[in-house]
Amino acid sequence: MIRVLLVDDQPLIRSGFRALLDVEDDIEVVAEAADGGEGLALVRKHLPDIALIDIQMPVVDGIETTRRIAADPALAAVHVVILTNYGLDEHVFNALRAGAAGFLVKDIQPEDFLHAVRVAARGDALLAPSITRKLINRYVSQPLKTGTDTALEQLTNREREAVALVAKGLSNNQIADNMVISPTTAKTHINRAMTKLQARDRAQLVVLAYESGLVAPRNS
């Protein structure tokens, strides 16, 4: 069962998403919150698999809520998915940098929304390669000097190769085919790289790969 927490200051938005989720046999909405502060308390109480969090809210916004979740080791298994009205913007990129697993635009089709929840629950990033390139091209003008370069030196050549392929949007099976290894070995390389880079999930691994210069963005 995928356990979901909804955090949005608009009751109509929450009820709409809840109506979609409640009819699914494999998904359960465990709680709702109207702002980030309340949402964070409920995340700690319920430990959901997915926290769907609006990016713009009173009291505590979605970016700060995401940052606080990512900073708490007890919440490491919670995947944050940002909800936005506006699509690609700097707020979305900052949320990804803060630790979000991906983002969804609120006018998403119902079937795509349900698919996205299941993708995030598996630990996969909700970032198509074209979306990633647009974000990076727009908001990362040069690699950040945050210690990522030093961390990259800890990776083996195969781990670096796997990270680069993750950043290009490949699945574990596709990475395995590219590297001529088993999917299990590919997943092992990725998990070890995430541990060494202190990345919460694949989305943050993608951001780190581009910001460190390991992968260079190309115009889509």
List the helices and strands and how they pair.
Elements lengths: L1 E6 L3 H12 L4 E7 L2 H11 L3 E5 L7 H10 L7 E6 L5 H9 L3 E4 L4 H12 L7 H11 L8 H5 L4 H11 L4 H8 L3 H15 L4 H10 L9
Parallel strand pairs: 1-2, 1-3, 3-4, 4-5
Helix pairs in contact: 2-3, 3-4, 8-10, 8-11, 9-10
Please give the count of helices. 11
Widest sheet, order of strands:
2-1-3-4-5
The total of beta strands comes to 5
Distance between the termini: 37 Å
Radius of gyration: 17 Å
* Share in β-strands: 5-15%
Low-pLDDT segments, ≥5 res: none
Structural category:
alpha/beta
Describe this structure in words.
Keywords: DNA-binding, Phosphoprotein, Transcription, Transcription regulation. It holds the Pfam family Response_reg. InterPro entries: CheY-like_superfamily (IPR011006), NreC/VraR/RcsB-like_REC (IPR058245), Sig_transdc_resp-reg_C-effctor (IPR016032), Sig_transdc_resp-reg_receiver (IPR001789), Tscrpt_reg_LuxR_C (IPR000792), WalR-like (IPR039420). The modification 4-aspartylphosphate is found at residue 54. With 220 residues, this protein is α/β, with parallel strands linked by helices. 52% of the residues lie in helices and 13% in strands. The chain is built from eleven helices and five strands; from the N terminus they run βαβαβαβαβααααααα. It has helices spanning 11-22, 36-46, 62-71, 90-98, 110-121, 129-139, 148-152, 157-167, 172-179, 183-197, 202-211; strands spanning 2-7, 27-33, 50-54, 79-84, 102-105. α8 (157-167) packs across α10 (183-197) and α9 (172-179) crosses α10. The longest helix is centred in the last third of the chain and has 15 residues, at 183-197.
